[in-house]
Amino acid sequence: MKKIKVGVVGYGVIGQRLADGVFMQGDMELVGICDVGVTLAIRALKEKGMPYNLYLVDMSKKSDFDKYSIEISGSLEDLVKKCDVILDSTPAGVGAKNKLLYQKYNVKAIFQGGEDNSVADVFFHGYANYEKGLGKDFLKLTSCNTTGLIRAVDCLDRAYGLDKVAITIIRRVADPGDYHRGLTNALRVDKAPSHQALDLMTIMPHIDATGILVHTPVTHGHIITVIAKGKKKITKKMALEAFRAHPRIRMVSIDEGFLGNASLFRYARDLGNPRGDMYEIAIWEDTIVESGDEVMFAINIPQEAVTIPETIDGVRALMEMQSSSKEATETTNKYLHIGKWK
Amino acid sequence: MKKIKVGVVGYGVIGQRLADGVFMQGDMELVGICDVGVTLAIRALKEKGMPYNLYLVDMSKKSDFDKYSIEISGSLEDLVKKCDVILDSTPAGVGAKNKLLYQKYNVKAIFQGGEDNSVADVFFHGYANYEKGLGKDFLKLTSCNTTGLIRAVDCLDRAYGLDKVAITIIRRVADPGDYHRGLTNALRVDKAPSHQALDLMTIMPHIDATGILVHTPVTHGHIITVIAKGKKKITKKMALEAFRAHPRIRMVSIDEGFLGNASLFRYARDLGNPRGDMYEIAIWEDTIVESGDEVMFAINIPQEAVTIPETIDGVRALMEMQSSSKEATETTNKYLHIGKWK
Amino acid sequence: MKKIKVGVVGYGVIGQRLADGVFMQGDMELVGICDVGVTLAIRALKEKGMPYNLYLVDMSKKSDFDKYSIEISGSLEDLVKKCDVILDSTPAGVGAKNKLLYQKYNVKAIFQGGEDNSVADVFFHGYANYEKGLGKDFLKLTSCNTTGLIRAVDCLDRAYGLDKVAITIIRRVADPGDYHRGLTNALRVDKAPSHQALDLMTIMPHIDATGILVHTPVTHGHIITVIAKGKKKITKKMALEAFRAHPRIRMVSIDEGFLGNASLFRYARDLGNPRGDMYEIAIWEDTIVESGDEVMFAINIPQEAVTIPETIDGVRALMEMQSSSKEATETTNKYLHIGKWK
Amino acid sequence: MKKIKVGVVGYGVIGQRLADGVFMQGDMELVGICDVGVTLAIRALKEKGMPYNLYLVDMSKKSDFDKYSIEISGSLEDLVKKCDVILDSTPAGVGAKNKLLYQKYNVKAIFQGGEDNSVADVFFHGYANYEKGLGKDFLKLTSCNTTGLIRAVDCLDRAYGLDKVAITIIRRVADPGDYHRGLTNALRVDKAPSHQALDLMTIMPHIDATGILVHTPVTHGHIITVIAKGKKKITKKMALEAFRAHPRIRMVSIDEGFLGNASLFRYARDLGNPRGDMYEIAIWEDTIVESGDEVMFAINIPQEAVTIPETIDGVRALMEMQSSSKEATETTNKYLHIGKWK
User: Fold this and answer.
1) What's the pLDDT band for C339 if we cut at 50, 70, 90?
2) How much is the pLDDT for A87?
3) Average pLDDT of the residues in C130-136
4) What is the C-alpha to C-alpha distance for residues A26 and C92, in angstroms, rounded to an integer?
């Protein structure tokens, strides 16, 4: 079988992980990555022995790379021409400009959450609306919080039917190593409803959603509390059953030692995962409570890596590699070793 | 009118503020405070000129105080004998032992949230169940989160009737200056339902409540998101109207510059309040959203001072100084200058 | 005696405290304060009953203030015309522009640390070079770290003579309530030597100084470690003796309960100081150690208020109210109640 | 060549990394690891496919492990009997008790920094006093801060001769994932001199050392500033030259993007190192400054992994695998891939 040729443009927190994720797919080929300067991420790649081909947005910067003896395989345009799909993880706004280039060469692309919805044909999630992405040219992926949230909401919705959700997002304010943003001894409140609730309704229009987002000065994973109203009453037992069957959801408990987002960050490092990453969201069993006809629970979202599987699902949709969400997500999961612990 | 004689036992974060609050009441006399050693709080009191009489739990420790030329007015027993009501803000568990002494001298007392409910005749809140405290001997006050939460919930309940609330408590993990507890770059999840939801149901048994609590590494105020279901639909406008009329609730907005809990901490300092304290909870106008027949909003709880007004309301109930919550809270508010900005 | 007329331009963290400090001086009159918009600091002033006259940089903004019923006394130009000295605590760069206005009306001014040195005739510290400021027109005050550091260094230098200092500044990255800057779970290193070491040499050219600065994610006070080399050996006992005699230095110890910068922040709040501020630096007795012929110790710098006394000293120098540092600082200290605890 | 048989007792933050480090040594065999219960670290090992044999301190706990289908290879005693050397990374105090067992079976051991010095024949560092450990029975390794500090101090001392150092340790207060300790918005000061300065003098008695330690609320690496006085003047150029030649020291710069300890934590993750660890200390080129005849610089200490190489050096000393520090450290480095980037 011919492998699908994929390029990653923008080698930041998300781009690095997309490249690693694509590299692990048996039916895809990572043609190369593309960035603008000799960042620490590029330096680390060089120190690892340069496993990926590197392309440059601006070839006039090549001499900067020469100083570090970093080989350049060509320009962004060169990369685009060789690919079937580009995963664009450039800073917000840049993707829209790059799209012109992708269109010029009839190359499909997936944009990350920072980009405007209008950049894409479909606002996409691998589980909730895979079929809408089939054969399209441009997808925009849900943001990290929304991606993880929809996994859990879609899981309950498929199993029992949902009418309404209300969420509280306790957002980590920066990633480990970020110096360009931060918060010190302060919680910050956003205007409600949060965009994640609105985004959820765009992807799952049959569900009424609202929510409040509070930023917290931590780096190891968002926590979302969800109150979900089923078409019929969803008990704790029913919720547990559905969550446990989902390959991209880990059920954890405080009693085992998973005390919060930092326990999960440490656990992923101890697993030996590259970069200490985790693809799965986690739900704490001992936070699931019933409230009248509603069910409430808390999710952990590993923001750096959570969108990787759904983005790869997106490649499958764009290229019609699998015709259903079930087949596509199972294939992605297999190559990313997701769910092997079950 | 004879002033009610009040003593404060335990001069920690809460005790200091109770003493200041009682001192401001025109119809109460602060007989004195009592503690165990030469803490920094006592040192600060001395540096301020020793405005309050100081009693000692253990008179054998007097020589420690002599070194700093701090005058001692007598023993804990001496203090108890002179008082009508003791406000016991000792560490959890100590209050239950002290109670024997209060009973011996027929002195009434109010315990803080850390003590077991069984220590008191009534688990008390100045607005939600003032009348139940009338003439009783022992009250236990709701904890800081519960006190602030009930203000908002009781406010909506009185105005429109409530059936159910679900809360997410984003808890500050330590007070400014605490070195005995702390959290570093981690969110911590508690088992659900949180005790604050259960406590709310004890005080307001007609309301169904549940909730999840997440600890965050900050010191300047808890934030609670509340989803409340009214007996009939409560609109944003209706919620605003009720909240705005409540003397112990400040309505604030992000647009004005109240970006989070730290903005409110700074604002209280800039107001020149003693210790930079704030008695009022704050609700962000721009977080109020409707969700079907429910209304959702975010509250700020200034944990160091929020229970002071309701504790003083408790003195009024115990001594039957006012016969209704309305009169009692209005009197407390007047002396604490609460609501003067309205 | 005619009081010196002082205006404060820029009512931010420093400006608010300058206004309060000037207001407390028996030989100065606070003519008014000036700012650009309805900030929370102005809102707090209004809620306190508007004790200071408010002037506006841009009178076209007056309608914003009308909405809050905040009275305006005139324009910046109106304020300048009424003053002998302006304390300019506007954001960095604005002071240089304002200087033209001050010159136009022959009004003296003191700029804060963010401004370029060239804006002033003298880079000023109330103890280290008071006499150089006598009768001048424009002073620039040392920044918060440098102001506190020089207090301690000048103290040892006067007593025993110093040749060299090397410092490590453990800098708090934001003030309580700051949302425009912050750091999350990260230390940040600056290029050496730090500007504070260079500034110290500008003020005290006979001392060789160098240093490294590390930013930390806290808000309650910088900590500086200092290694000082005397002309002859300075013992711990000698250092203690000199520090204890200095009115703007508090000697504290870990054994008493002063465990770090947050203990001092809490102590100042408990003292009932307005805004919970502290003017004094603190030095931990139990950090003073001898190293060969050098002495090492740790200082706490309360960054929000530490420059206030030296700025007021600056007014005294500009207006030649006192002819020596000793008289000037003693007068400032008296009005600010500094050293009363000794 | 017969491989040296090594066991790791205590599978916590350090023990896990010791096991991984020993596993990578071509001339050592990791017989197994030993712990007390089903911790998350053990769970992660199981999820990875149980690459190491697991022994139990208390065989009566075996049923807890059965629940997770985790195979047990025997008791602590079984493990000890099979080993030449035990790396004891149990909590402080436990190692001293375990020592009796090691003595019973004539097995050598290395204890970590928390244990009392008296537990060992030699207080050990792979570079500074390797030869003292040759053929001994029990070593105690320097703590993480001291291990990293001595690398840099020994490096300058060997090259140029040192008389004196004064250090400021800006200590990270917890590791990522720690919930049993933490600090929130506070710096904490320790009594001086810090134990690290005293420990340095124990290992390198010809150097006079003192220092102050300040705890900071971060998890990603200690930072130490060092002021070192050479027997003759050490210039920045000389320091750079020596540091650059050291295999366990990385020279980094702010200009490259290494802004602080979190940049290094991220970089190690991006390198794909297991658990995102780094064995090397880093020194910022742009913090090196001269101060009279002294040189000052800032070091980053990756506290989780920094002691691993020197502990493995200790195995080489105990078993006399290499006769000199140079040969031993080079062998350790080769197997840990240290210095390959140079």
Assistant:
1) confident
2) 98
3) 98
4) 56
pLDDT digits (tens, 9 = 90+) for C190-236: 999 999 999 999 999 999 999 999 999 999 999 999 999 999 999 99
Could you write out the three-class secondary structure of A186-250? CCEECCCCCHHHHHHHHHCCCCEEEEEEEEECCCCCEEEEEEEEECCCCCHHHHHHHHHCCCCEE
Supply the DSSP symbol for C337: T
Length of chain A in terms of residues written: 342
Question: Rounded mean pLDDT of C304-308?
Answer: 98
Contacts of C94 by beta carbon, 8 Å cutoff, 6+ apart: C10, C88
- CATH class of the domain defined by B144-301: alpha beta
Q: What is the mean pLDDT of chain C?
A: 97
D282 forms beta bridges with: D250, D300
pLDDT greater at residue B1 or residue B133: B133
* Contact: D178, A47; criterion CB under 8 Å: no
Give which of C191, A148, B312, C31 is closest to D253, Cα–Cα.
Answer: C191
Q: Which residues of B touch C177 (CB under 8 A)?
A: 262-263, 265-267, 269
Decide: helix, strand or coil at residue C152.
helix
Q: How much is the ipTM here? A: 0.96
Task: For residue C265, name the pLDDT band (cuts at 50, 70, 90).
Answer: very high
Q: Which token pair is A270?
A: 């101890």
Nearest CA-CA distance, residue C189 and chain A, Å: 11
Q: Which residue of C has its CA nearest to A172?
A: C184
Domain A4-142+307-336, CATH 3.40.50.720 — does that match?
Answer: yes
User: Quick one: tokens of C35?
Assistant: 């700012």
Using a CB cutoff of 8 Å and minimum separation of 24, what contacts does B334-342 make?
B335/B24, B335/B25, B335/B26, B335/B27, B336/B21, B336/B24, B336/B279, B336/B308, B336/B309, B336/B312, B337/B24, B338/B247, B338/B248, B338/B279, B338/B280, B338/B309, B339/B247, B339/B248, B341/B250, B341/C47, B342/B247
Which residues of chain A, if any, have pLDDT below 70? 341-342
Torsion, Cα A330 A335 A336 A341, to 10 degrees, reads 70
Q: Do B276 and C276 touch (CB under 8 A)?
A: yes
Q: How many residues in total does chain B contain?
A: 342
Please list every residue in chain A whose beta carbon sits closer than 8 Å to the beta carbon of residue C182: 173, 181-184, 186, 217
Q: SS3 for A43?
A: helix
Residues of chain A in contact with residue C181, where contact means CB-CB under 8 angstroms, are: 182, 184
Residue C274 in tokens: 């307005």
Asked if A187 has any chain C CB less than 8 Å from its own CB, the reply is no
* pLDDT score recorded for residue C341: 66
Instruction: Give the pLDDT band of residue B246 (cuts 50, 70, 90).
Output: very high
Please answer yes or no on whether C176 and B265 come within 8 Å at the CB atom: yes
Q: Read off the pLDDT of residues A90-131 as tens digits, 9 standing for 90 and up.
A: 998 999 999 999 999 999 999 998 889 999 999 999 999 999
Using the beta-carbon criterion (under 8 Å), do C184 and A177 form an inter-chain contact? no
Where do we find the tokens 């009214």? B230
List the single residue in B40, B266, B270 with the smallest CB-CB distance to C263.
Answer: B40
Q: Which architecture characterizes domain B4-143+307-336 according to CATH?
A: 3-Layer(aba) Sandwich (3.40)
Superfamily for the C4-142+307-335 domain: NAD(P)-binding Rossmann-like Domain (3.40.50.720)
Residue A100 has a CB neighbour count (10 Å cut-off) of 8
Q: Residue ranges of the domains in chain A?
A: 4-142+307-336, 144-301
Give Cα separations from D159 to B269, C18, D240 (angstroms): 55, 53, 11
